[in-house]
Structure formats: structure tokens, C-alpha cells
Amino acid sequence: MITALKALRRNRFKTALIFMSMTVSIAAIFLISAIAGGVVSMYSSMLKNRRRYYCHSKRDRGYFFQ
After folding, report:
1. Is the model's pTM score more than 0.85?
2. Alpha carbon of 28 to those of 10, 41, 42, 49: distances in Å?
3. What angle separates helix 2-10 from helix 12-49, to the nearest 10 degrees?
4. Which residue from 42, 43, 64 is spatially nearest to 55, judged by alpha carbons?
5. Model confidence at 66, in pLDDT bands (50, 70, 90)?
6. Residue 61 lies in a domain
7. Helical H runs in 1-66?
8. Contacts 24+ apart (CB under 8 A), 34-39
9. Which residues pair with 65 in a beta bridge?
């Protein structure tokens, strides 16, 4: 344990980079999970309402979908 702490102190820049990459990776996982949950919630509410939604894309202009 003591040798591991000494190695971390000697390589401060490398330790900081590893810590930052772990932090960014965990934040990205939470962000992707939140976006996926929002998309699922949006589509499930669309299916529950059973209303017709108008598609606004140029290629599919004029088509309705449920």
C-alpha cells in the first residue's frame, strides 16, 4: 500500500489524467442513460396518447404516423 501511494505521488500528472478520464467516462455513462430514458419516455407517451403526429422532415412531408 505504501509503495502504491509513493508511485501515485511520483507520477502526479499521470495520476491526474487517469482520474480525469475516469470522471469523464462515468459522466458520459450517466448522460447516455439520461438521454435514453428521455427518449423512451417520449415515445411511450406518444403511444399512450395515440394521437397523430405530423412528420416535419422534407423527405416525408405530408405523411402522418402514430
Report:
1. no
2. 29, 20, 21, 32
3. 90
4. 64
5. very low
6. no
7. 2-10, 12-49
8. none
9. 53
Residue 52 located in a structural domain: no
Q: Which residues does residue 64 pair with via DSSP β-bridges, in sequence order?
A: 54
In a domain, 32, yes or no: yes
Measured in degrees and rounded to the nearest 5, phi and psi for residue 53 equal -110, 135
What does the radius of gyration of the chain's CA atoms come to, in whole angstroms?
24
Give the number of domains in the chain.
1
Domain span at residue 39?
Answer: 20-46
Residues 55 and 61: beta-carbon distance below 8 Å: yes
Residue 19: is its pLDDT beyond 50? yes
pLDDT of 53 strictly over 60: no
